[in-house]
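Progress note, project year one: complex with adenosine-5'-diphosphate.
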Amino acid sequence: MRDGTCQPLVAEEWDKFFNLSPDIMCVTGFDGCFKRMSPAVTAVLGYAAADLLDRSCRDFVHPEDLGRTRDEVDIIVGGSRTATQFFRNRFLHRDGSFRWLEWHSNTVAKDRLIFSVVRDVTEQTAIEERVQLYATELERSNAELQQFAYVASHDLQEPLRAVAGCVQMLHERNAGKLDERSVELIDHAVDGAKRLQALINDLLSLSRVGSKGITKTWFDSRLAVEKAVAQLQGAVEEASATITIEMMPHLSADFVQLTQLFQNLIGNAIKFRSHERRADIRIAARQEDGMIVFSVSDNGIGISPEYYDRIFGVFQRLNSRREYSGTGIGLAICKKIVERHEGRIWVEAGIEGGSTFRVAIPVGKHMQ
Ligand code: ADP
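Model obtained:
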């Protein structure tokens, strides 16, 4: 028919489907005995259809699945639910092995019959089990790694502080007695210790962002941007940077982490400013398909497109330490924050050859 509906099928036509289906089709009585079995059973389970007639389904179900299977049958036979879908159990193959079957069944109470379409999902189940195993293993090793990163960075801080303190004391106690080269060497040692300290602190922040749960609240994102700018006040003044904050939306996110994200992005926009012009930084947001897309644009030194992905990795820096200080962890922290919010971060060309970092985060729900 033209509208896609058909005349009811006659028995002969039903038989065609019954014989053609690669999935097993069968009719079972409420007592669990097979009354009709499609020929697909031979390809799936090795039996001739006739072998199974009048045999109870329970004789073939794996002993460990028997309880669940009985419960499921009792539910549909009892009538509290008339259908079952995606029910899985293991069924004895003629060769003695077990196959995973997935049952989609419906009852006709007046005839005390169960109609089922049964699919062999042995391979699919094995793959799902393997994926589950990998996921569990991955979660375990991730947690272990995070714990290691946390402990290592935490425990490294103490001896480092001691080294930096001793060198500094050495300098103070010998003030005036040291030659120029010795002072220079002490300065190098202090500088190295400070850099290591910054590195460890950033690694600690990275591992904290990854291991701590996020606390979402509904807030005005302008507050997070303003707090980030306030925390960067010294750098903003030193660079005489202009910071423009456009309309900012409300969203559901972790306030502390969003503030840290803006602090890293705006901090970078100030740090990587061009020597040729005053830093002009613009923070904006737009809403798109349930996501807020924030942007932090600068007119700084810019980033070559071939590094657009790489810079979000740990320790990836494009400039020398002498030119621009830093640990190369800031953007990795941003990426982790965004991922924890099920969002995405990327970079594009910005104003006057500068960069624009974009962050898409789901708006989330307004919770009271
Ligand atoms: P850090 O700032 O400590 O070097 P980040 O992870 O924050 O580390 O940034 C990684 C690298 O990406 C930086 O070293 C720099 O080369 C580049 N980068 C980041 N932000 C900007 C920016 N706004 N403009 C130009 N380059 C940037």
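The two ends are 53 Å apart (CA to CA).
DSSP finds ten helices and twelve strands in the chain.
No further modelling is planned for this target in the current period.
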